[in-house]
Amino acid sequence: MSNAALGAVAPPGDGALLRQILDDAGRLIVGKDHALRLALACVLARGHLLIEDVPGVGKTTLAHVMARLLGLDFQRIQFTADLLPADIVGVSIYDREEGRFHFHPGPVFSQLVLADEINRATPKTQSALLEAMEERQVTADGETRELPDPFFVIATQNPRNQIGTFGLPESQLDRFLMRVSLGYPDAAAERQLLDGGDRRVMLKHITPRIDVPTLLAWQNHVDQIHVAPALLDYVQALLAATRNAPHWELGLSPRAGLALLRAARAWAMIDGRPQVVPEDVQAVLPNVAEHRLNNLDPTLKNPVQELIRGVAVP
Amino acid sequence: MRDAMANLPIPSRLLATLVILLGALVAPHSANLSPMVVGAFYCAALWRLLALSRPTLIPGRWVLLLLMLGGMATVVFSTGIRDGRLTGTALLVVMVGLKLLELKARRDMHVTIFLGYFLVLTQFLYNQTLGLAIYMFCGVIGLLAVQIGLNRVHIDSRQQLVYTLRVAGGALPLALVIFVLFPRLETPLWGINTASAVTGISGEMTLGNIGELSQSDATAFRVRFDGDVPPPAARYWRGPVLWHTDGRRWTAGRRPVRPEQVEGVSPNAIVYEVTLEPTGEYWLFGLDIVTSTPPSTFLNRDFSLVGDQRVNKRFTYRAASDPDYRVATMTQGERLRGLQLPDEIAPRVSQLVKQWMAESDPDQPLQVVEKALRYFRQQPFVYTLSPGVIEGDPLDTFLFETRRGFCEHYAGSFTQLMRMAGIPARVVVGYQGGEKNPHAEHWVVRQSDAHAWSEVWVPGRGWWRVDPTAAIAPERVERSIDPGLSQDGDEIVFSGDNSGLLRVVWLNARWMADAVDLNWHRWVVGFTAERQQSLLRQYGLSDLQGIGLGIALLIGGLVAVGSVYLISKLPRPRRGDPLPAIWQRLVRKLRRAGLTVDDWQGPDTVCSNAIVRFPDAADQLAAINRMYVKLRYGRQSDRSLVSALYKRVAQLKLR
Predict the structure, then answer these.
(1) Phi-psi label, residue B569: left if phi above 0, alpha if psi -120 to 50, beta otherwise
(2) How far apart are CA B358 and CA B498, in angstroms?
(3) Does the distance separating the beta carbons of B629 and A228 come in below 8 Å?
(4) How far apart are the CA of B165 and the nearest CA of chain A, in angstroms?
(5) What is the per-residue pLDDT for B488?
(6) What is the average pLDDT score of chain A?
(7) Chain A residues within 8 A of B629 when measuring between CB atoms
């Protein structure tokens, strides 16, 4: 925990490197800086990301970009109604020459998995992935296999009101550290988008900025970001406020509280700060909390912002 | 724990504090004790201070024994052993000094501290003023601080002060309960008396002695009226009644007999409470005429009010007066005494009286009174404080030659003239008037309000007050004399024209001090058994005495201790964390300067908003933000950074 140790895992150039990653990503996904930052924070906090949006706003591109920039190996699983758990985890096939079963790992055995349109698959298939996300290991044919480290899932989901989808239950949504919406770009960004080249071509030209050991070191560094008692007071006050508010079915769980802290730490690190400040918590709170809370009051436009405004910073 | 502490050395800082503190506590005794005793104490204290740096100076056992014998001898030779209070105090003071010299262990420190508390107590045997009480309260706080310092190994002086004030504050409710409810002793312990009685009205009147009094603005007594205040012309405060004259001097004569029983008191009697300054005399003052006497006092037949002991300390009593009360009968003895005359009477005076008698109806004595008053009015009499020396027959010289005089001249000569005309008459001395304290509810009667007047016997109507001074200087009865302005000049200056800012400030300050003084006496020093009962009665606890009072004391004490305990258990803001207060100060500053700051906004948000609004202070605000975030949310807990942050916030200027 000494400062010297911190210096070793987080060399001074990190801030610049993190900014470069965000800049590179921003060139492809125009005008979505906040969402990109959240996605990066999610990776650094060892969390999984859920992108919920209408088709065609760049969800898949975002996952591609993150994988390329962070130097992660990448697999995409297109979720469909007929997808089976084995299609994700892998299957054991009998090898006649060797005379035994041989395990063929599925696409989940990669550092970054893009689970595209996760709500199109049946709940059984969804849960196979979600179990892997939580345990960071899979069990097939009675044998437990570790998933790679880092292991990071970006799931995309179309809004639930579309036909032929199976919405994720709350307990499953809880597995995602954050939910991000990209939304339509604004006019200037859209113009830039239309004016620019083909995204797929551009993706090919992206070079990784860091390697896997650096990412792991960064993830370790996130744990070292200082959280003061006053900040814990603040987080507790926020959690208590969600539990006391009438317009939410259930308040945030302790697990959500831990997730909030981890996300805030990562956010502080991207800002180059050695400690978490209330603003970090406020910045990540909507994306950490919204998908875990079931808003019962449809008149509230932005309940999480209301929540933030209702809790004094200690 | 205690045993472990007992062997620790005494910090010399604490010891030096204690020695200096005791020196300060003994200091007021220099007014009460002989200089030798006080000097002996200071020598010992100084010795101890010097020995702090050179421990070899501490005297050995034999030297101490000699010193002790020397100290005892000092006490006996300088104070004697006749006054237990003086001797006891002197012995305590000397022994505290010697205790300092033999102080070695922590136990000795504790003993000395307790002697210090006792020393504080002895001060109040001599003096009970508010000033001394405040001084001694500070002394007690100091002793407590030393005691706390002695019981805590690691403590800085700020913490020490905080603990001390907390302990003292916690003890306050209990002290208050004990003060109010503890059974009062009817007579004060050891017959406490105050330093000296103010020179006031004496039991006789010689030419010039009231005039002298009129130059003093010392307070004679203070009065609080229960209801309406009588008009100035009715505020005659009756003191001793003088019957006997030798032509120059008036005295009460034989001790008046038979205390008066007043019957049929008028329902519109004036009720009031007098706080009399010590006079050293028996008599008390009441509004003319007292009809209801306070406890342990009685009325003489001539309606002078006397107590059963000398007024050697401030004395508060309640009385009622009826200005219209008259006694219709007169004994033969009174008639004789009321007609007594000096042995020699000048022929010119006899001639004058004979002329008045010839001109009036013998059945109408008031006609003679009227003639005498007209004489004073028509002849060139002057009302003055410096009448000059009267030689020869005083009455003759005053009436026909000097014609300059003060109230005693007029009252004395008028009374004698009436007696010569066969009308029983007597002189009453007391005070006339009084001034209201503008900052309080009471009136102050000063020595300068001292006055003398006459009473004549009118058959069928009783004793009748005649104030001949009013014939010469009617304003005397309406207004007070201003002693400050009247001293040297011939003419008497009456108060009422208060101009000049300095004088107004000075007068106001004096009135305020007067109000504080009276309340201190009313509620603290003069809180006697009687007042205690009347206070309890106000809260429906009448007849609470003896065991009942003890039970009330116990319950009150438990409530006081319990509530202090409960308050101490209340959650407090995290101690030693000044940061929220500093942040709030910054927020207040920003809000005053017009920036909207919400409670939910974190420091970064607030400061960046502030920088946009006040670009001139951008550097300051950025620095404040950096420091605050570091201290509040970072690992940093450097105290010096906290004070630096405080300074920056304090110096922040927003435009």
Answers:
(1) alpha
(2) 49
(3) no
(4) 29
(5) 47
(6) 83
(7) 275, 277
Cβ–Cβ gap B599/A228 under 8 Å: no
Going by pLDDT thresholds of 50, 70 and 90, the confidence category of residue B480 is low
Phi, psi of B157 (to 5 degrees): -70, -25
pLDDT digits (tens, 9 = 90+) for A5-43: 333 344 445 678 888 888 888 888 888 888 899 999 999
E strand segments, chain A: 48-52, 74-78, 90-95, 100-105, 112-116, 137-140, 143-146, 152-157, 176-180
Question: Rg of the Cα trace of chain B?
Answer: 35
Phi-psi region of B509 (alpha: psi -120 to 50; beta: other; left: phi over 0): alpha
Tokens of B49: 């201070």
The answer to whether the CB atoms of B602 and A274 lie below 8 A apart is no
B632 close contact with A: CB closer than 8 A: yes
What residues in A contact B637, CB-CB < 8 Å? none
pTM: 0.50
Nearest to A277 among B580, B598, B602 (CB): B602
Count of alpha carbons within 13 angstroms of residue A248, beta-carbon side: 21
Evaluated on CA atoms B393, B395, B400, B401, the torsion sign reads: positive
Which residues neighbour B407 within 8 Å (Cβ) at sequence distance 6 or greater? B210, B451, B452, B453, B469, B476
Put simply, whether B626 touches A (Cβ < 8 Å) is no
Mean pLDDT of chain B: 82
Torsion of CA A113, A116, A118, A120, to 10 degrees: -150
Burial class (CB within 10 angstroms; exposed 0-12, middle 13-18, buried 19+) of B86: buried
Q: What is the pLDDT of residues A65-121, one digit of tens each?
A: 888 888 888 888 998 888 888 888 888 888 888 888 888 888 889 899 998 888 888
Closest CA to B338 of B364, B365, B374: B365
What percentage of chain A reaches a pLDDT higher than 90? 15
DSSP structural state of residue B231: P
Q: How far is B583 from chain A (nearest CA, A)?
A: 10
Q: How close is the nearest chain A Cα to the Cα of B591, in Å? A: 16
Known catalytic residues of B are 407, 451, 467
